[in-house]
């Protein structure tokens, strides 16, 4: 619940330029030069800041070194790694919500996680450089949801209908198709866009290895085992933590990986702790979390 | 090990901080702001 509240506050604080709703434009003041560390489209009518991936492509297109951008993302990553993906990203929150829809759930091959580096290097880097066009922005489902759809809905109102219909091109249809696919997949698997596509997640994920915020594990202090009255309280590899990981990671084996979004879900069960690398880990008292183990297991075989 | 970690942290902090400051000074802030072509 705490994460949901932070996600909501982040969503509203970065997308609260409400004058756009009546004026029909979007914010273009000086704050737009600030890149937020999440996938928040520059063209969203309510957005105050810029998307770092859009800005990165822009720097590549104008043949300029993205020093400013690397500085921002480097500093964010140095302190918290991929934490913004789990706590601040509006599109991550959107996928979290969609996953709650009651549809059949399934997993995908683990190797698909590497695809996001193909998108980062290929589409965001090489294709933008070669074509002078920000192609990732053109197909980005977050951009379609946050900017394309609101713009189209605004344009087709009343006297602007004809102008609005001009907005609906083959590219718009393609974007909508991709968004629909991501929405459907998000309802059936955990955060597919974050796991397989997001180039920003790939960039920030690289900093997980050396970020100050880190996760550690102690397999002798499992709250699940404790709550079940186990004599030894050791991790019994029940995979309860893994089943609750929004990124479908193997916990605790992959808690330090590129894909860990530092959502801290797994720290609720005792075996995994968070902490700042320069200080001792923050241990959670087992007595604080036994309720976690009393929830029914996802597999239903508890 | 802790001392090495602190040293790495300080070095990276200086590098990324310098990138940010130099990037802004070189017009990065304005160039990002000018990316209206994405729309």
- Report the total helices of chain B: 2
Looking at the structure, what is the overall shape of chain A?
globular
Termini gap of chain B = 48 Å
Number of helices of chain A: 16
Helix content of chain B: over 70%
Largest sheet of chain B: none
- Rg for CA atoms of chain A: 21 Å
Number of strands of chain B: 0
Overall form of chain B: rod-shaped
Which sequence of SSEs, written as H and E, runs from N to C of chain B? HH
Low-confidence stretches of chain A: 296-302
Q: Catalogue the unreliable spans of chain B.
A: none
Indicate the radius of gyration of chain B in whole angstroms: 16 Å
The assigned structural class of chain B equals mainly alpha
State the separation between the terminal residues of chain A, measured CA to CA: 24 Å
Chain pair with largest interface: A-B, 34 and 30 residues
Sheet having the most strands of chain A: 2 strands, antiparallel
General description of the model:
The complex is a heterodimer of chains A (302) and B (39). In chain A, strands 1-2 form a two-stranded antiparallel ribbon. Helix content of chain A is 48%, strand content 3%. In chain A, helix 4 crosses helix 13 (199-206) and helix 9 (141-155) packs across helix 11. The longest helix of chain A is centred in the middle third of the chain and has 19 residues, at 170-188. Chain A contains 16 helices and two strands. Chain B is mainly alpha-helical and 39 residues long. Chain B is 77% helix and 0% strand. Chain B has helices at 2-25, 28-33. The radius of gyration of chain B is 16 Å and the shape is rod-shaped. At the A-B interface, helix 3 and helix 4 of A face helix 1 and helix 2 of B.
